Amino acid sequence: MGHCDADMMKTFQNIDLVAVADTNPQQLEDAPEGVETYADIDEMLEHADINTVMVSTPNPSHPEMVKKAANKKKHVICEKPAAMSVALFDEMVSVCKENGVLFTVHQQRRWDKDYRIMKEVYDKKMVGDMYVIKSQLYGFNGNMHDWHIYPEMGGGMLYDWGVHLIDQILDMIKSEIISLYADVQNVINEKVDDYFNIIMKFRNGITAEIELGTYYLTPKRAWFIGGNRGSAIIDGFEGEGKIVRTSHLLENVPGKITMTAAGDVQTMIGSGTETMEQLDVLGKALLPTLAAAVAASGGIVSASARQVATVFFSNLLLTLIRNVLLPLVYFYVASAAAGAMLPGEPLKRIAAGIKKVVTWALTGSLVLFTGYLTLTGAASTSADALVLQMTRSVISTAVPVVGGIISQASGSVLSGAGLLKNSLGVFGMLAVLATCLTPFLHMAVQYLLYKVTAFLAGTAGNGTLVELIDALGSAFGLVLGMVGSCALLLLISITSSVSVVVS
């Protein structure tokens, strides 16, 4: 430390380094030319023509050195930490006062470029009323030198760099500390701390956090100040960073976000996806049995055609949903949300276009499937009537999908009930309903909640919020339509298969 202090003194015009004292002869060999050297402080104080003493000895020796210098009527600059206890520090202050000499602690980090910049940000309130300040220092790979690695010498990073970092915060904020948390650890050093995290809350409402870790492999010095009109960051001791400010405060944030207990978008879409996967598994397990029943009744060709068609269209529909339609739903939510927040119509038109694409993709898949069963004769006359009625209704109510799907799902059950005269058909119908009923109702409730919420928000006159909530509700409606399409595909297959067996 003494070497650093000697180099520092060369930069001041009104300070001359006259003499140095050290008990280690090797240290004295590095003294600048023309500077007197002494083996101990007593000898230096007795003979050297000096008026101020800078104490740069190990921490525990500071009280003794300060008292000796003060008693010789020398002003004192003491390295940090000045003492290892408050009681010792009070003694040092008292001796200096009795001898009428000045006494200060060498807190040179108050003049670091990075700190001076952040202090100016704070003093001038460049980011408004501040609420958090963070000071971080990492690096050195756990390297500590000399006596700093011995606890009895006052070693460890809290007594070393920690003093500077804490002093900077206290010098900047100048408010009473009302609470303090400190986590001090020995990570790779056996006896002294090499990591600490300190959180201080001040009377003026600011929270300051100081974190240091010497065992990090990548050195870093960073600052952050957050306020209600912006934020400021610095990366490095040279003060490189930026300030981001807003021209006006955010308004009406509290109470403007409507929350429901029905779950978020991702959760509900995931529920729909899981249900569709379960329907796929059920179909692959049930349809071979139905095909065997059809074949046993003499419809070997019909059984083969129905089995192949159902498996093919089920896989096609699920692949389409997984890889295309569900990503489009997320894109629809993003586009609709952005369109509600931003001026202009392009994003809203994109969202509407995505909704139509998803709707017609589902409708087209069902039309192709039912059309195949009809044209190939895989469905009986009675089943044909049911299939065609489903197709017409789905097409006529294509936008929104959910309305047509839900109504036709109920119609399918009623129309197909007369065909399901054997236990296999009844079992198949019940299995499909059991698989999709709970998540279907869950999503339907979610859909209705969003629509009702949008209506209520509309009564308050917040058009942006209405559009946003309505878009989220429509997203659930699209997923609801996907589940309904998968369920209808399987129900149509079951009813047409059973009609062949009982006809």
Protein topology:
Elements: H1 2-9, E1 19-21, H2 25-28, E2 36-38, H3 41-47, E3 52-55, H4 62-71, E4 75-79, H5 86-98, E5 103-106, H6 113-123, E6 130-138, H7 161-173, E7 177-185, E8 195-202, E9 207-213, E10 220-227, E11 230-235, E12 241-245, H8 265-296, H9 300-341, H10 346-375, H11 381-396, H12 401-417, H13 423-459, H14 463-502
Parallel strand pairs: 1-2, 3-4, 4-5, 6-9
Antiparallel strand pairs: 6-10, 7-8, 8-9, 10-11, 11-12
Helix pairs in contact: 4-5, 8-9, 8-13, 8-14, 9-10, 9-14, 10-11, 10-14, 11-12, 11-14, 12-14, 13-14
Description:
With 503 residues, this protein is an alpha/beta fold. The protein has three domains: 2-106, NAD(P)-binding Rossmann-like Domain (Rossmann fold, 3-Layer(aba) Sandwich); 110-245, Dihydrodipicolinate Reductase, domain 2; 265-502, no CATH class. The chain is built from 14 helices and twelve strands. α10 (346-375) runs parallel beside α14 (463-502). It is elongated.
Could you give a quick summary of the protein structure above?
The protein is an alpha/beta fold and 503 residues long.
Mean pLDDT: 75
Q: Strands of the largest sheet, in order across it? A: 7-8-9-6-10-11-12
The total domain count is 3
Radius of gyration: 39 Å
The major sheet is characterized as: 7 strands, mixed
Low-confidence stretches: 253-263, 378-388, 390-425
Strand content: 5-15%
Distance between the termini: 102 Å
The number of strands is 12
Structural class, from secondary structure content? alpha/beta
- Principal-axes geometry comes out as elongated
How many helix segments?
14
Q: Helix coverage percent of residues?
A: 55-70%
Q: SSE order, as H and E?
A: HEHEHEHEHEHEHEEEEEEHHHHHHH
